[in-house]
Automatic annotation (TrEMBL):
Bilayer-spanning residue ranges: 36-59, 66-86, 92-114, 119-140, 146-169, 176-199, 205-229, 236-256, 262-286
Extent of the signal sequence: 1-17
Keyword Plastid: no
Keywords in alphabetical order: Membrane, Signal, Transmembrane, Transmembrane helix
Top-rank lineage group of the source organism: Eukaryota
Record's GO cellular component terms: membrane
Designated name of the protein: ABC transmembrane type-1 domain-containing protein
GO molecular function: transmembrane transporter activity
Amino acid sequence: MIVVVFVVAVIVAVVEEEEVVVVAVVVVVAIEEVEVVVVVVVVVVVVVVVVVVVVVVVVVEIVVEVVVVVVVVVVVVVVVVVEVVVVVEVVVVVVVVVVVVVVEVVVVVVVVVVEVVVVVEVVVVVVVEVVVVVVVVVAVEIVVEVVVVVVVVVVVVVVVVVVVVVVVVVVVVVVVVVVVVVVVVVVVVVVVVVVVVVVVVVVVIVVVVVAVVVVVVVVVKVIVVVVVVVVVEEEVVVVVIVVVVVVVVVVVEVVVVVVVVVVVVVVVVVVVVVVVVVVVVVVVVVV
């Protein structure tokens, strides 16, 4: 704006000191002030929109992470309950084995008592005792062998069940952790893509709006200067010089505004991407 004032003042001093040209300069300065206000309002609106979008995206990401953590906790609780049930089954099997051993001991005691009675009666019936002892010993051996086989089978079954349950629990936990990590990574990637797309769209809209505003301001300035100078006095040289100066200054202002807007948007995109990457790393470490 100051450059325009000085250039037009020099032109007025060199070409011709006309009050009408001074009036045209004042009008151009006023129009430039309006342009500055419009550009500032547009930049403020864009920054507010970008901040709101980033806040919404971060809140959605936090909610998704909380839901994932709750799902993991529920799965872990279910796994713990299954392990408790398996332990109860093992306790029941142990009790059954103890009962079988007690029964075996009772049978042995009975056999011993019978043998004592037989020994007392050996003088009376030697042959009968021999037969009875053989039968009883054979029966006791058969019973003992059956009990041992049953105990071994029960122990093997219990071990197999425990191993299978442990393997299933480990597989379930690994699958749940992998699914949780994949879901978190997918959600974060989608959020980053949405934020980048929104920022790019906002940048395009801002650049288009600024370009339109600047073009309208240039046209209005040129029309005002031409009309004022032609109505009062037809000075073609003055008109052309003023128009060229105004157009050059406006083009410089447009380039400066566009560069500032692009830098601000790039900084916002970089900050959003860094925040999202940090959140992903934290979630993966926690899981």
